[in-house]
Amino acid sequence: MKVFVKIFVTGCLLAASPGCKQYLDVTPDNVATLNSAFSNANETQAYLFGCYANLQALADVRRNAGFTASGEILFPINMQDQTTLGGQGGDGGFNLMRGLQNSLNPLHNYWDGYNLGLRLWESIRMCNIFLENIHLPLDVQPYERTRWAAEAKFLKAYYHYWLLRMYGPIPIADKAIPINAPAEEVRQQQQSLDSCFSYVIRTLDEAIPGLPPAIQNAAAEAGRITATIALAVKAEVLATQASPLFNGNPDYVSFKDKQGRSLFPAEADPEKWRLAAEACKLAIDAAVAAGAKPYELRVQGNIVSMSDQTRQLLTLQGAFTDGWNPEQVWTLNPHYGWQYMSMPRVTADAASNVFAVYSNFSVPVSESEIFYTKNGVPITEDKTWDYANRYQLQTGDEAHRYYIKQDYTTVKGNFNREPRYYSSVSFDGATWFGSGNTDDNNPNYVNAVDGYASPPDRMRYNATGYWPKKLVHYQSVPGQNTVWHTYPWTFIRLSGLWLLYAECLNEADGPTAEVYSWIDKVREKAGLPGVLASWSQYSRNPSKPTTKEGLRQIIHQERRIELAFEGQAGWDLRRWKELQAVLSSPFQGWSVFNRTVAGYYQLSTVYQPLFGLRDYLFPIQEYDLITNPNLVQTPYW
Q1: Confidence label for 15 from pLDDT (cuts 50, 70 and 90)
Q2: Is the pLDDT higher at 6 or at 236?
Q3: Which segments constitute the RagB/SusD domain (predicted)?
Q4: Mean pLDDT within 412-429
Q5: Taking the model in full, what pTM does it have?
């Protein structure tokens, strides 16, 4: 995508008029500009890439409630200036968990494009204009015309889906409303939830045949949509529609439009899970046919010494941080720019430069405890693991020397955990392969007690003593001469599709050998035994995988572990109606400003998250309800 300047200019021309500020009031008077935009192939392609612009912007995790409101990571600093909430500082989205959402000026406002939201209605209008004018340029080849139209249809479908997932029933903008349309035509009303989902699926189905199965010229086209991506998104959309939040949710059964028509389905339809399962299998088959496979470590840079254990951790981590690898089904171009928020200071050089590492992305203790023991079962269930004494102190030993610094004192809960724990989370005493040191025999490590993690300025600090290590590439070296090894953001990985398929199969038919097989593919990649083997041998509840309800819990936890910190958990927990339970307990961590071991390892509360029933869906800004009286407010707002 080499045309970002042209994208910006085109987008500004379409969106700059004052009328572009509110939903469907996008009535640009720049008709001559639109005519020139479709005068030839180059201008037309530039307009298409303008349609892509907000999709690329969605790769910024600050804009993604699946990341900022998941309970996986908290941003500890209380911002006193409420006018900047969600503003240019970029951290306002985390206030969704503080109970600061509101309908006057909503956080993550994607309806209007405020507070880290994007103007998705304008992007949808651009897609519609593109589809209405793609026939004009005479020098566009037929195969290009077909592909470009298919890309625009995908983008239009995905933008609708993003809004649908946030707000529930929404208006459907399938055509660009004429600039001279009467007010009542502009004032669109919400369609029923199932009608919205059907529209998204139908539009994806129209797009898929015109898309290439894979990108052939990555240097020129990386980030553009393929049929494989569209099939994976279709599977996700159908699974979302089948999930408890949207499938016969009793909390929304009385939600109606201004004409008294019900907007949510009154009863759950189990057939939706079956349709989602079929879509998952098609997506997996398409991905494999296009070359998708589990990630194999691509070693980069000079390696002094690497153990098998470290190689395994880098392989698990690299599936996400090694950009454009075969496990990544859908990856977007913008680079993850928050590594300095995600890592501890593990060298004196990093500690001496206060601007090199901020460490503010803090993982609550509760999130660190969703990861399994080394036996592949939850820490609350493993009959060989000392759950009751997990907060007692223990010294690093030879058996854990590639995970925990030998002879360093940390807590017992950091021992005998699964590989994904050590590849995803860092903590006081954890080894750190990288940050300029690739010698496994003498690695860097996290010395949080001595203050490298939490300096006394109370700004550039980690509030819990746990970091999302998964989000930091091992070749990144902060310090006086900082070098960040950036990587693109991945929306869908192959292992995530495996687990989504397992979930849909279990919801449709309950536990079967096929369900276990797809979960076990993920577990094998993570170095764990299969589900049945682990539970029968190590769990206090050995029959758990044999019931639909028990296996549902296992699949949900497996997805939260496998996709931790990837911007997925927040959306999963919403659609499962489990986010309120996750955010009901205080966010806790260690006493990070205490400089003694005994003092540091005292649990403290960072803050109590506030998330209620109304927060599952986002409010429409009250101003929009005034300007468009055909709209109804989101339930409970």
Answers
A1: very low
A2: 236
A3: 357-637
A4: 98
A5: 0.94
User: Using an 8 Å Cβ cutoff, are 124 and 25 in contact?
Assistant: no
Average pLDDT score over the chain: 92
Q: Are 206 and 153 a contacting pair, CB within 8 Å? A: yes
CA 339 to chain centre: 16
Separation of alpha carbons 615 and 69, rounded Å: 10
Contact 387, 379 (CB under 8 A): yes
DSSP class of residue 410 equals E
Tokens of 17: 């008029």
| Mean pLDDT to the nearest integer, 204-213 | 98
The span from the first CA to the last CA of the chain, in angstroms, equals: 40
**CB neighbours of residue 85 within 10 Å:** 21
The distance between the two most distant Cα atoms of the chain, rounded to a whole number of Å, is 76
Is the pLDDT reported for residue 184 higher than 90? no
194 CB burial (10 A radius; 0-12, 13-18, 19+)? middle
Cα atoms in the Cβ-side hemisphere of radius 13 Å centred on 338: 26
Residue 306 buriedness (CB in 10 A; 0-12 / 13-18 / 19+): middle
Query: Which DSSP state fits 419?
Result: H
Amino acid at residue number 430: A
User: What are the chain's domains?
Assistant: 212-292+327-336+488-583 (1.25.40.900), 337-486 (no CATH)
Tokens of 282: 């098609």
Does pLDDT of 3 surpass 70? no
Q: Specify whether the CB–CB gap between 61 and 338 falls below 8 A.
A: yes
DSSP 504-553: HHHHHH-S-HHHHHHHHHHHHHTT---HHHHHHHHBS-TTGGGSHHHHHH
Summarised one tens digit per residue, pLDDT across range 627-636 is 999 999 999 9
Q: How confident is the model at residue 575 (pLDDT cuts 50, 70, 90)?
A: very high
| Phi, psi of 463, rounded to the nearest 5 degrees | -85, -10
CB atoms within 10 A of CB 353: 14
The two three-digit tokens of residue 265, written as one number:
């389905």
Percent over 90 (pLDDT), the chain: 85
